Amino acid sequence: MKAVSLEEVLQKESRLTLGLMSGTSADGLDIAYCEVNVRNHFLKNLASATIPYPANLREKILGIARTRKTDLAELLGLSSYLGHFYADAIELFCRDHEITKRGVDLVGSHGQTVAHLSRPLQFLDRSVTGTLQIGEAEVIAKRLGILTVSDFRSGDIAVGGSGAPLTPIYHRAVFSREGKTNVVVNIGGIANITILKEGGVCLATDTGPGNCLLDTIVRDRTDHHFDDSGKLASSGEIDEALLSKLLQSEVLQRRLPVSHDRGEILRLLDDDDIAISMNKLSTESILATLSELTAITIKHATDQVLGSATPDSVIVCGGGAHNSFLMRRLQHHFSRSRVLSAAEFGVDVDFVEAEAFAYLANLTLSSLSGNLPQVTGASRAAILGKISLP
Fold first, then answer.
1. What is the pLDDT of residues 14-36, one digit of tens each?
2. Quick one: 87 and 41 in the same domain?
3. pLDDT per residue as tens digits for the range 131-179
4. Which of the listed residues 127, 184, 289, 338 has the most CB atoms within 10 Å of its CB?
């Protein structure tokens, strides 16, 4: 059966869209199959799944992100490989959910972040910023015969923005409630917040580490990949001396709003003073302290952006929503607010970002801007994404 033609896709108000997201933790590819109508701010998740990355692929990606050293040929090969991996994953997903080619109008692919300049770099005679998400979208479009939108962040950077976060425009569509001030907290590898105030006001920033430091310690010190439900952290003690050293690091002292690179957060573990302090502690106490770091940087960022107001609800999505210890620490710091999982809003906490890029892809095809200048620092609103034709 032939895929939906470009002309048919452009004429539709509601489009059946596959949103693809692989976060900085590089666990795998999240796929959300959604019905989307951006004119009505509507998205319905019809099916979703995560296709895990093989261990060798995950380690390759994490190695590049942490060291920032790779051969150019290797990087090109990895981008092409990921494009084929994504196409394979889509085919598997569609078979499992009995979705035909006619049942997919559009793919919105975030790609795999391997580098992100959180601050300008002086290059020759110009100060520049940039971001790099790999996973060749042309491979997806040409192999599957489906219109694909990718590389969303570069459009915001081109008009002076930081390229992140981009999900707040979707958070606003889903989590805004009239008369309420809500904070949406996404805890992936990096944590970020979206503050939704009355009148449609939307503010956002990265806050610092989400799960990336926690996962790295677990992988280095145990046979596991992550601290399931925060069980290890729950049996440890928060070390105030280590917490203070982490909070005083330059990367966590930057003026908000800010956009963080996973590699620069991970390099906190390479600091000699921090490493010496960690070597004196049990794995459990390190994880308890790093969990507290995530919670307290989220609270500090919220206070700085929101001011003296108290949010009605703190809505948590991403992998961190499954960490009971981290959720308890958030409730401790947000003692006057209700801390809850995004699931209580009828949203699958694991697929909010995949849904967001399905939403952003539809904004692109509808010639609507996908960034919020007050969030990213861009000089203007801009249409985001590059379109790959079948």
1. 999 999 999 877 889 999 999 99
2. yes
3. 999 999 999 999 999 999 999 999 999 999 999 889 999 999 999 999 9
4. 184
Exposure string of 206-232, with b = 16+ CB inside 10 Å and e = fewer, is bbbbbbbbbbbbbeeeeeeebbeebeb
Asked if the structure places residue 1 within a domain, the reply is no
Amino acid 264 reads: E
Residue 154's domain comprises 6-162+351-388
Tokens of 317: 């999505």
Backbone angles phi, psi at 367, to 5 degrees: 60, 40
What CATH number does residue 360 fall under?
3.30.420.40
The answer to whether residues 103 and 55 belong to one domain is yes
Look at residue 1 and tell me whether its pLDDT is greater than 70: no
For 28: left if phi > 0, alpha if psi spans -120 to 50, otherwise beta; the answer is left
250 by Cβ neighbours in 10 Å (0-12 / 13-18 / 19+) ranks as: exposed
pTM of the predicted model as reported, rounded to 2 decimal places: 0.90
Which secondary structure element, helix H or strand E, spans residue 278, and what is its range?
helix 272-279
